[in-house]
Design goal:
- By secondary structure, the protein is an alpha+beta fold.
- The chain folds into 2 domains: about 5-90, Uridine Diphospho-n-acetylenolpyruvylglucosamine Reductase, domain 2 (2-Layer Sandwich), CATH 3.30.43.10; about 90-410, 2-Layer Sandwich (Uridine Diphospho-n-acetylenolpyruvylglucosamine Reductase, domain 3).
- About 25% of the residues lie in helices and about 25% in strands.
- It contains 13 helices and 20 strands.
- The strands form 4 sheets. Strands 11, 12, 13, 14, 15, 16, 17, 18, 19 and 20 form a 10-stranded antiparallel sheet that branches. A 5-stranded antiparallel sheet has the order 4-5-9-7-8.
- It is globular and about 60 Å long.
- It starts with a helix and ends with a helix.
């Protein structure tokens, strides 16, 4: 099998635990070609991985390469960041600058949320939302509409106010919400196809404290009439299930509080019981690497993510899949997936259900609809998981499921096109910015231009 054939599949290489891969990616000063992704299920194919130290060096690299893809924190589970020739890491672009007057922060494309958040908090500011993991880069997260949660919270991309992009000719382009609103809504969730993002400007707000409370054993039947109320019970709410026994194993509720205020924990929540200790979403795992619970107040950046920055994220070696459906049909979608429970559970580590507010970003999974995200963290059993995905996608088909761009899915390009009203406008925008396809790869060609 040659490189191109291999890249067109999502076949995996299982090589050690997640911690070893993450530590290697985080600690090395100069990224190395042919490393694996975050979970170790994919080895990148590019023979050259560039790591420029300045924007000028990024421009030079772009001019000198006929084909190039940006590589972030390697947290994608599919080939969206892969290339058969050249990749570029922005790890050295790590500047951070707050503008107190405009209430924004501008960061280099190599900055991770886990680095930005405590620095920003110390200056009295916060961002509105964070993903469950703080280990991901700002630029990579917004390019794929990575999200966080909350019925009133847009995904991480909705905080973007401006982008600095090096386009195919090596020139710097600034895209802002104010100066170019039409292209802005197409460029933010750009899937790496418009150019190399070198800086991102985000809206910020005054810093705040949060608490986190966990409840156990919620009947899934409670979701039929109470899904909206349950998902609205906090600033951010997550439900965890293994799909068995009509049961939501855990409900994580994160709320904003006044500085230092400890939350009174109600003993029950829709019949679920308050946890008496810190929990991991996978109940057999230690909660040591999870952010503090039990109503203990702390900074926003130490409560919104599920996992601490300096600990092993999530479970370890794993695969991930996620589908976004309209939240007003969320209960139906949950029950549809549940019919496959005996096929799903043997290969599953945990499923998380979250809410994301609608937005106007063309290729966002929450484009113009309030969404429920159905997330699967799988055991690293690639053949079995890939065989299951078409069955799950068939069950979700009546609900127009939009898959997370950086996770595993098998929905064909023609179907993807029908799920995004601005698909053709995005394809035209890509062609305008990159007429020769310098920033395309097999993933983009297949999923955006393959319909």
């Amino acid at each position: 099998m040659n490189k191109r054939q291999f890249l067109k599949t999502t076949s995996a290489i299982v090589s050690g635990t997640l911690l070893s891969h993450f530590a290697k990616a985080a600690d090395q000063k100069e990224p190395v070609a042919h490393e694996t992704n975050w979970a170790g299920n994919l080895r990148y194919h590019a023979d050259h991985l560039y790591a420029p130290h300045t924007v000028a060096e990024v421009q030079e690299t772009v001019r000198n390469c006929a084909s190039l893809r940006a590589l972030g924190s390697r947290h994608s589970f599919n080939t969206i960041a892969d290339s058969l020739t050249n990749q570029i890491s922005l790890v050295h672009l790590d500047s951070m600058e707050v503008d107190t007057k405009s209430q924004t922060v501008t960061v280099g494309a190599g900055v991770r949320y886990g680095t930005l958040a405590p620095w920003l908090d110390a200056k009295g500011f916060a961002v509105h939302n964070l993903a469950s993991l703080p280990h991901i880069t700002v630029a990579g997260a917004i390019a794929t509409a990575t999200h966080g949660s909350g019925v009133k919270n847009g995904n991480l991309s909705t905080a973007v106010r401006a982008l600095e992009i090096v386009t195919a000719d090596g020139e710097i382009h600034h895209v802002t919400r104010e100066s170019d609103p039409d292209h802005f809504h197409g460029a933010v969730v750009g899937l790496g196809a418009l150019g190399i993002v070198t800086k991102v400007t985000l809206a910020v707000q005054p810093r705040f404290d949060m608490t986190q409370i966990v409840y156990r054993d919620l009947s899934t039947a409670q979701l039929e009439h109470n899904l909206e109320a349950i998902m609205s019970a906090g600033y951010s709410v997550s439900l965890f299930t293994n799909w068995q026994n009509n049961r939501i194993a855990q409900v994580w509720i994160k709320n904003r509080v006044a500085n230092g205020e400890k939350t009174t924990i109600a003993p029950e929540f829709y019949g679920a019981k308050a946890a008496t200790r810190n929990m991991h979403p996978i109940e057999t795992n230690s909660a040591e690497n999870c952010t503090e619970q039990m109503g203990v107040p702390g900074p926003w950046y130490e409560r919104m993510p599920h996992f601490k920055m300096n600990f092993t994220p999530s479970n370890g070696a794993e695969l991930q899949t996620e589908y976004f459906v309209p939240r007003n049909r969320g209960y139906e979608a949950i029950r549809a997936v549940e019919t496959l429970r005996d096929k799903i559970t043997p290969h599953l580590l945990i499923t998380e259900l979250r809410s994301i507010a609608a937005d106007d970003l063309w290729m966002s999974m929450a484009y113009q609809r309030d969404s429920l995200a159905i997330h699967f963290t799988w055991k690293q059993e690639t053949p079995e998981v890939m065989a299951l995905l078409p069955q799950i996608e068939e069950k979700l088909a009546p609900f127009g499921p939009r898959p997370h761009w950086a996770k595993l899915f098998t929905i064909p390009p023609s179907r993807l096109k029908s799920l995004y009203p601005k698909h053709d406008d995005f394809a035209s925008l890509v062609n305008d910015h990159d007429p020769k396809g310098k920033f395309r790869n097999e993933f983009v060609n297949h999923n955006i231009f393959g319909a």
